[in-house]
Amino acid sequence: MTANIQKSLEILKTTFSCRLFYSNMMFLRYFFILFAIAGLLINPSAAEACTGITLKSSDGSVVAARTVEWAESVMNTMYVVVPRDQELQSFTPSGGDGMKFTTKHGFFGLSVEQKEFMVEGINEKGLSAGLFYFPNYGKYLPYDPSQKEKSLADFQLVSYVLGECETVNEVKEKLQNIRVTNIEPRSSTVHWRFTEPSGRQVVLEIVDETMRFYDNPLGVLTNSPGLEWHWTNLNNYINLQPGTTLEHDYGPLQMKSFGHGAGLLGLPGDFTPPSRFVRATFFQLTAPQQPSAQESAFQAFHILNNFDIPTGTEQPWGKASADVPSATQFTVVTDTRNRIIYYRTMYNSNIRCIDLKTIDFENVRYYSMPLDDVKKQPVERIDIK
User: Fold this and answer.
1) Which residues, in sequence order, are CB contacts of 277 under 8 Å at separation 6+?
2) Spatial separation of the C-alpha atoms in residues 349 and 368, rounded to whole Å
3) Distance CA 276, CA 253 (A)
4) pLDDT at residue 312, rounded to an integer
5) What is the pTM of this model?
6) Residue 118: φ, ψ to 5°
7) Where are the domains of the chain?
């Protein structure tokens, strides 16, 4: 009898120790996640430069492209594969106890800091989703612990949409009963872009605690202020035209342009969201239409070259880190028809791609991998013989 009691006590002790260890590990993981998201979002001035464009090919295919910026430090960036029927749970300000959901569709995307924090992705149905910083203009509902089962962290909304939805109409329907929240109450808000293979695109902004969806036929998105403000601001640049201004006389003087592109004199060149929105709009609209999605993807990379932000331009003199090759940490282009995602990083300018049609979402495991195994730009050596 004594031996049995002793054995039972040992089992209880072991079980309690394991549970305590697991509980402590979960607490530590949540602490590090909170630390990571706070570092990203509490200082939005260092993170608010994301630029998105959308190109339509002559064959009807649509690509959604964007940059992801962070000037403060090297982000932990990774790609993430999520299978069908994967159970996920949102973080909340009180821990990893938010809304649970099981994915209907498999998806692939790029995340920052934690695999749960997907900033851009596409699912097996061709729906694309991405988040962009939206500081000072958004306002979510306050977090209510009594409704934590309906609460979804803003940085996990992309994963929810890709796992749950096939069209933008579904996105609008499914999000109506969800309470979007910050994990860290002091952090910045974000807004989102959703694009389906038909080319329809909507932007979601949560302002004054209310979800507002905007159809976005232009297909350009940056950061604050809100999307409608950016549309209105384009009226200030109605004079801009591609090409060269014709020569004409100023009284006795004959005036000629100094070179090509004089019609765009006055196009803003700084890195603020309003200026990037104007610049992206004109570069997108003046780009010749490509015959296929792949050619449009390559064109999108060329256009977004103009939005690579050099390290040092977003911080005071002498404050930039020499360890960050570029404030634009990666650029991603999504082919919604063919379900291919292309990307390149600040460490590797070569374009890499993943074809979702090659992924068995029924059997693949849920996992993440770094975007760069080697954090150094590869150089191809040409031998002259």
Assistant:
1) 51, 220, 221, 222, 230, 233, 234
2) 21
3) 36
4) 84
5) 0.87
6) -85, 125
7) 29-225+289-370
Instruction: Find the helix or strand (DSSP H, E) in which 171 lies.
Output: helix 168-175
Distance CA 221, CA 214 (A): 11
Would you call the peptide bond into 225 cis, given omega within 30 degrees of 0 as the criterion? yes
Give the pLDDT confidence of 207-234 residue by residue, as tens digits: 999 999 999 999 999 999 999 999 999 9
Cα distance between residue 45 and residue 39, in whole Å: 12
DSSP for 47-99 reads T----EEEEE-TTS-EEEEEEEE--SS---EEEEEE-TT-EEE--BTTBS-S-
pLDDT tens-digit series, residues 295-323: 999 999 999 999 999 888 878 888 878 88
How many helices (H) and strands (E) in the chain? 6, 19
User: CA–CA separation, 346 vs 368, rounded Å?
Assistant: 19
Report whether CATH 3.60.60.10 matches the domain 29-225+289-370: yes
pLDDT for 369: 98
